[in-house]
Structures are given as structure tokens and as C-alpha cells.
Amino acid sequence: ETGVTQTPRHLVMGMTNKKSLKCEQHLGHNAMYWYKQSAKKPLELMFVYNFKEQTENNSVPSRFSPECPNSSHLFLHLHTLQPEDSALYLCASSPYEGSAGDTGELFFGEGSRLTVL
Amino acid sequence: TQLLEQSPQFLSIQEGENLTVYCNSSSVFSSLQWYRQEPGEGPVLLVTVVTGGEVKKLKRLTFQFGDARKDSSLHITAAQPGDTGLYLCAGAYLDTGNQFYFGTGTSLTVIP
User: Fold this and answer.
1) Which is nearest to A59 in space by CA: B93, B4, B1?
2) How many CB atoms sit inside 10 A of residue A4's CB?
3) Average pLDDT, chain B
4) Is the confidence at residue B13, as pLDDT, over 60?
5) With an 8 Å Cβ cutoff, are A102 and B98 in contact?
6) Is any Cβ of chain B less than 8 angstroms from the Cβ of A87?
7) How many angstroms separate the CA atoms of B86 and B103, rounded?
8) Is the dihedral of CA B82, B88, B92, B97 positive or negative?
9) Does the beta carbon of A48 lie under 8 angstroms from any beta carbon of chain B?
10) Distance CA B57, CA B76 (A)
11) Which of A75, A93, A96, B39 could form a disulfide with A67 if both were Cys (CB 3.0 to 4.6 A apart)?
12) Torsions phi, psi for B81 (to 5 deg)
């Protein structure tokens, strides 16, 4: 148990569906992240939120839309996805304090396994 | 997107053997971390190194950060089946603070 909970654990959706992934952390961390893990590819950083503000969008297609309503919750809204978007989506948090030299540990959830048909 | 190359990509060894995994980049990192990921779980941090030339030990695992802070290695002594997993390095840059970019991963299998 890492303190980061992701739901759902598994999701199957069609290309025309709209769904959302949810991430919740009760560690008191200030930073939250979405990563994508595909077979034979490195973990891809998608979005970073520091103190509820988005500080990184790593060239992610607009069919992925993040939302961070507060420092404990992070959502990834999915719309008109493609089969190549099938992957494990990992949420993480870290105790970011705002300085450039922060080396905070990433605490990951167990991931949401997404299959797009 | 920053590239961290790990080698080897796959490694299968007998229990008791030693092994070394490498993480290389053309960029200088402010810090580098090693994670282990087991099936069905998210990665879990093993160590963080921040100083060029730094060596850290965690039981049978030895981590080294290159002098130029562009590469790192993970050495496991007398591997055990419990060491089986996906080993990932991750680097952060000085000007991007807490944005961590991950390596390609090394899948290790230790055969009893």
C-alpha cells in the first residue's frame, strides 16, 4: 500500500466512449503526475501538477484531458481514444516543495489498465 | 522527451549470480533514481543519487552515479528470486525540478 489509489484498475472502452480515470492520494503531497506505460516503451510522462497547477503537458494529444480539483485528487478524462492508447496509466505523487533542486520520491498507484477497442 | 537508455533490456540469471544494469543518457541530471516494478504494481523507489561519483548501498544492491552525472549503474550481488522484477532508472533536470523521465527498463528474472 503506497497511499496512492487508482480507479478503475481495468477499463475497456470503445473509440467513441468517454471515460475517466481517478487517482487519490492521502500522503499530503503537493505534486501529482500521470504516466503512460506501454509494452516495449519507457514510462512516458504525460502531465505534472504542482500545487494544483499544471506545469507540464508533455505533448499529449487533446483526447487526454487532466483535471486536478485539489491536491489530493487527479483525474484523466478520456475521449475518442485510439487502439494505440491502450496501456497502463500510472498516477504518482511526490512531496514537492517548490525548489528546482527537489528530488522527491515518486509514490505510484497500481495503475489503470486501459484497453481501447 | 529525454532519452535514458538502459542495458541490458532483459536478463535471466541463476540464483547466487551477480549482475550489473546500466543507465545512460547524453544529458546531465540533477538527480537520478532507481525503481523496481513488480507485475500488477506501480514502481517503488530503491534509491536516489544526486552527487557525481556517489555510491550508495542497499543490502545486496550497490548504486553508482557517474562523475559527469550522465550515467548510473545498479549492481546486485548474489541475486535471489525475490529480486525478480523490472528495474527502472529515472532522471530529473535542474531546471525542471520534479519532472522525472524514465529509462527503457531492465527486466530481471532470477531462476531458483
Assistant:
1) B1
2) 23
3) 92
4) yes
5) yes
6) no
7) 11
8) negative
9) yes
10) 10
11) A75
12) -55, -30
- Considering chain A, what is the average pLDDT of its residues? 90
DSSP B9-59: SEEEEETT--EEEEEE-SS--SEEEEEEE-TTS--EEEEEE-STT-EEEET
How far apart CA A49 and CA A47 sit, in angstroms, is: 7
**Cα B88 to the chain's mean position, in Å?**
5
Give CA–CA dist A67/B43, Å, rounded. Answer: 23
> Which residues on chain A are in Cβ contact (under 8 Å) with B44?
2, 108
Interface A–B counts its CB contacts (< 8 A) at: 76
Query: Looking at the complex, does the CB of residue A89 fall below 8 Å from at least one CB of chain B?
Result: no
Dihedral sign for Cα atoms in the order B29, B109, B81, B41: positive
| pLDDT at position B95 | 73
Q: What is the amino acid identity at position A40?
A: K
For A13-53, how does the pLDDT look when each residue is reduced to its tens digit (9 = 90+)?
Answer: 998 889 999 999 999 998 999 999 998 788 999 999 988 78
Distance CA A24, CA A95 (A): 14
Residues listed for chain B: 112
A67 at interface of B, judged by CB pairs closer than 8 A = no
